[in-house]
Design goal:
By secondary structure, this protein is an alpha+beta fold. Helix content is 36%, strand content 29%. The protein folds into two domains: 53 residues, no CATH class; 74 residues, no CATH class. The strands form two sheets. The protein has a four-stranded antiparallel sheet, with helices on one face. It has a four-stranded mixed sheet with strand order 5-7-8-6, with helices on one face. The protein is elongated.
């Protein structure tokens, strides 16, 4: 049963910045034909939107498993879970062996230490908008 689900989609300011693909697409083909310029502008925006929204990684926690993007780990290997704020993110990512799912538009996250001795990755860092809720769920 799914206990937690979050899609790491961009925030509203990112979508406004993404709208800059519209004049870029229009400017490419508008000198040839205005109609094709409009089609190109819409196509560029839709493709960019698909890349950042539809294909956004998801964090899913079930009774037995934690999935973050394409990575999966059994919950029995989840050790301590610490919420991380914007100011502490660089410290949390200092160890190069930490597997990370970072999204720049999400300032908070969780640092998960792993208890699997056979795994060369000592910890995971996941960007999340609900760091405290995810940390409480994984710690229980």
């Amino acid at each position: 049963m799914v206990r937690y689900r979050e899609s790491l989609t961009p925030s509203l300011p990112f979508h406004l910045a993404l709208a800059l693909t519209i004049p870029m697409g229009f400017g490419m083909l508008a000198p040839i034909d205005i109609g094709w310029g409009i089609v190109s502008a819409v196509t560029f925006y839709v493709i960019a939107l698909l890349i950042f929204v539809v294909f956004a990684p998801r964090i899913v926690v079930t009774d037995t498993e934690l999935r973050a993007g394409r990575a999966r780990i059994d919950r029995k290997f989840v050790g301590t879970v610490t919420p991380v704020d914007r100011d502490s993110r660089a410290t949390a990512l200092a160890d190069a062996r930490t597997w990370s799912l970072v999204r720049a538009w999400i300032p908070s996250g969780v640092l998960i230490t792993l208890t699997d001795k056979a795994d060369p990755t000592p910890s995971w860092y996941l960007s999340t908008r609900r760091a405290t809720q995810l940390a409480d769920l994984l710690s229980s």
